[in-house]
Design goal:
The complex is a heterodimer of chains A (about 625) and B (about 120).
Chain A: H1 7-30, H2 36-55, H3 58-75, H4 83-104, H5 113-129, H6 145-148, E1 151-159, H7 166-178, E2 181-187, E3 201-208, H8 212-220, E4 225-229, H9 250-275, H10 280-304, E5 305-307, H11 309-312, H12 315-326, E6 330-335, E7 340-342, H13 343-364, H14 368-373, E8 380-389, E9 392-399, H15 406-415, H16 428-435, H17 456-465, E10 469-475, E11 479-487, E12 492-500, E13 503-508, E14 512-518, E15 523-526, E16 529-534, E17 537-543, H18 544-549, E18 559-566, E19 569-574, E20 577-585, E21 599-604, E22 610-614, H19 616-619
Parallel strand pairs in A: 6-8, 13-22, 17-19
Antiparallel strand pairs in A: 1-3, 1-4, 2-3, 5-7, 8-9, 9-11, 10-11, 12-13, 12-20, 14-18, 15-16, 16-17, 18-19, 21-22
Chain B: E1 4-8, H1 12-24, E2 28-33, H2 36-46, E3 50-54, H3 62-72, E4 78-82, H4 87-96, E5 100-103, H5 108-119
Parallel strand pairs in B: 1-2, 1-3, 3-4, 4-5
The chains are: A alpha+beta (about 625), B alpha/beta (about 120).
């Protein structure tokens, strides 16, 4: 059988399992007496072993097998979960990840003999020191392990109607099941038990040597159990909170999104035709199509939504490694990992977050002895939380470290002429602007400054490019919080509305640095181009009216001006009037011939009239 | 011999009420704790058959106390006392090792059912 076409699937599933392994290891390491994690680890590694062997990836299968043996010993408690063992487990999961990634592209790395030996020693060596009871285990553990747990049963549980706190009750049932064996494929997951939609029905697989009757008694003892059935859940597809899933290539979703976009444009044209026609049947069809298309658009956007946890879940492991490396004690928590975000934005946001997390661990959190001296707990804390705010998702990264020394930043900014001398205090906004100056405080670390400038410019640029915003709050000695807000989907952004020459335009707010008034007295010139002097900074001007209509500029009276900013570049866009802000839906734009390059799309404003979206990148 | 109980709650009112319900049902309340730290200490001293544990308490909350107690005694029989809206916390407590829960306002019959399940 040609298995190569399963490679992508193997990779995707293995990544999920490996990521889960890291998660479980972190939890377990924090609480070595816990018994819940080893089962999950074992199952994940077992699955990878099976898949790897099927694919013919000998290295993957071999490493997974050895790792499985050690996990088995841990599960049998013949090997205690000592710190050195955790190190070894983390190391093995890393090696397995490398092996999996390599195997898929036909470049399986050579076997790591030392790791293999360490694993075998850890599993066997200590096992012989603490001999197993004769009936405990077969000669070759691993291969038969799941079977040895007894039967794997599908279990469906329904709680009584009217049961108080269904979610907690369900968690109790699961805990009872876990006391009998290994629970997997829990649906909905525990994180959704707290949801309003949870109706008290859930299913899982239980690998256990207990009899049906024993299981029934144990589960019922959790209370409020209406029924327990040992069968696959046929209602998976229908019941809310339990969805069946398939994997879809992101490229397909992109293509679908694009198609829907074109459909929207066609729908709009049909709408115009229908409104000019006296045929009521045509209007009716047009209205119906309009409704169907917008529902379809919503569905496609929903299909692209992915829980932020998929990106955040790799961070705890990273912070753990960082803290070891830095000799610091850091507790890292993630909240709101179920919040959903458009997949393409999610892919982009990981890197900036990583940057900020590194900064927080490296520069924010103090060494244990410094923290103790400052009257703080020795363990520093970094919290990454995601929350939904209307059409945005806010990602907050806070640390309880030393905070940013504004005085020092201010002094340095002044010295370098980044801000004018009159400023005697740094507001949070100004602080971010200074930090985000490319290269600020990179090379020579200013004593007392946390060095937060490192790479913040990169973060700000990336976030803005996504149509997002970023804020910083910092209290000296108490910590720093960065808040990144990104639109739920690239299809909805907040924009500033402006008019020129009788038309309305939308400027994505992400690019707006500030608005000022065009004052003929502050006009100057830079390289033969008209420019505006704003707080001692020379910014080239663009008159929107001139741009769109090719109309000669009337004698410039005072006019509102939008300062656009991308990275370090700025332009002053002079408009006729500003008309407030609005969340706009970016309609995919099928640019008619002759459309100037600074138009990035079109939108329908709340009052139903159309407006063009300016592409700031083309203007700056 | 009747079962022994340790009642943990920072409110005297709640402690009294729970003690009354359990005493009338024939249990012996051998101790009370008003913080998580006290709960852990008294559990070690008294080795009660059952613990009722409030979730929100000063000086180490109930969940942390459950975790501590279960570290040394995974079979500890701990009944969480929670209020509506604390579901997420109750789930956490169960994952930490609590064996059951009751929801305020308490109905004596509900409390006793839960106690029976835990001791059962």
């Amino acid at each position: 059988m040609d298995v190569s076409r399963y490679a992508a699937l193997f990779l995707a599933e293995s990544r999920e399992h490996l990521s889960a392994c890291n998660q479980l290891l972190l939890e377990w390491e924090r609480e070595p007496s816990a018994t819940r994690q080893v089962g999950g680890l074992f199952r994940a590694i077992h699955t990878i072993k099976g898949m790897g062997a099927t694919m013919g990836y000998a290295g993957v299968a071999d490493l997974a097998h050895r790792l499985e043996n050690l996990l088995d010993a841990l599960r049998q408690r013949t090997v205690p979960p000592a710190p050195a063992v955790f190190q070894l487990l983390f190391r093995s999961v890393d090696a397995l990840t490398t092996s999996v990634e390599g195997a898929v592209v036909g470049a399986e790395p050579p076997a790591d003999e030392r790791l293999a030996a360490d694993l075998d020693a850890a599993a066997a060596g200590i096992a012989s020191a603490a001999p197993r009871s004769p009936d405990a285990s077969p000669a070759v553990p691993g291969d038969t392990r799941l079977a040895e747990d007894g039967q794997v049963r599908p279990v469906q549980v329904a709680l009584r109607r009217g049961a108080v706190m269904r979610g907690a009750r369900a968690a109790l049932v699961v805990a009872r099941a876990e006391s009998l064996g290994v629970v997997s494929a829990l649906r909905p997951p525990v994180t959704q038990f707290d949801s309003q939609d949870f109706d008290g029905r859930f299913s899982f697989r239980l690998a256990s040597a207990a009899s049906d009757e024993q299981i029934l008694v144990a589960l019922r003892s959790a209370g409020d159990v209406e029924s327990v059935r040992y069968e696959e859940d046929p209602a998976d597809a229908q019941s809310p909170g339990q969805s069946r899933q398939i994997r879809v290539d992101l490229g397909r979703l992109d293509a679908l999104m694009k198609q829907v976009g074109e459909l929207v444009v066609a729908k709009n044209r049909l709408g115009v035709l229908a409104s000019g026609s006296s045929d009521p049947a045509l209007s009716e069809v047009s209205d119906r199509i309009a409704r169907l298309v917008s529902e379809m658009q919503a569905e496609v956007i929903a299909a692209r939504m992915t829980p932020v946890g998929e990106v955040l879940e790799r961070f705890p492991r990273l912070v753990r490694d960082l803290s070891l490396e830095l000799g610091k004690r850091i507790r890292f928590d993630v909240e709101g990992d179920e919040i959903e975000l458009d997949r393409s934005i999610l892919d982009e946001i990981g890197q900036p977050l990583l940057h900020l997390i590194r900064n927080a661990a490296d520069h924010g959190i103090e060494r244990p002895e410094q923290r103790a001296a400052a009257g703080k707990s020795e363990e520093g804390r970094i919290l990454l939380s995601a929350s939904r705010e209307r059409n945005y998702v806010a990602l907050r990264l806070s640390d309880d470290g030393r905070g940013i020394d504004r005085e020092a930043v201010l002094a340095k900014a002044r010295r370098e002429g980044l801000i004018d001398g009159s400023a005697d205090a740094l507001s949070d906004d100004l602080l971010l602007r200074v930090l985000a100056r490319p290269g600020f405080s990179t090379a020579e670390a200013v004593s007392g400054v946390s060095g937060r400038g490192v790479g913040v410019d990169v973060v700000v640029t990336r976030v803005r490019a996504l149509g997002g915003t970023i804020e910083v709050r910092s209290d000296l000695g108490r910590g720093t919080t960065f808040t990144i807000r990104v639109p739920l989907t690239l299809a909805i952004v907040r924009a500033l509305l402006a008019s020129a020459g009788g038309e309305r335009y939308a400027v994505p707010l992400a690019y707006v640095a500030e608005t000022v008034e065009f004052d003929p007295r502050s006009v100057t010139a830079v390289r033969d181009r008209e420019a505006l002097l704003v707080r001692e900074r020379v910014i080239p001007t663009v008159h929107l009216r001139e741009l769109v209509r090719n109309q000669p500029r009337p004698a410039p009276p005072r006019a509102p001006t939008v300062i656009l900013e991308i990275g370090d570049r700025r332009v002053a866009l002079v408009v006729d009037a500003l008309m407030g802000q609005q969340d706009i839906v970016v309609e995919p734009f099928d640019a008619p011939r002759g459309m100037p390059p600074f138009v990035g799309g079109a939108t329908i404003l709340a009052d139903g009239s159309p407006a063009l979206i300016l592409d700031a990148a083309a203007l700056v | 011999m009747s079962h022994t109980v340790l009642v943990c709650d920072d409110a005297i009112f709640m402690r009294t009420m729970i003690s009354d319900i359990l005493t009338q049902a024939g249990f012996e309340v051998v101790g009370e704790a008003e913080s998580g730290v006290q709960a852990v200490d008294k559990y070690r001293q008294l080795k009660p058959d059952l613990v009722t544990m409030d979730i929100v308490m000063p000086d180490m909350g109930g969940i942390e106390a459950v975790r501590e107690i279960c570290k040394t005694d995974p079979d500890a029989k701990i009944l969480m006392c929670s209020a509506m809206g604390q579901q997420a916390l109750v789930v956490e407590a169960i994952q930490a090792g609590a064996k059951d829960f009751v929801v305020k306002p308490f109905q004596p019959s509900r409390v006793l059912e839960a106690v029976q399940r835990v001791l059962g």
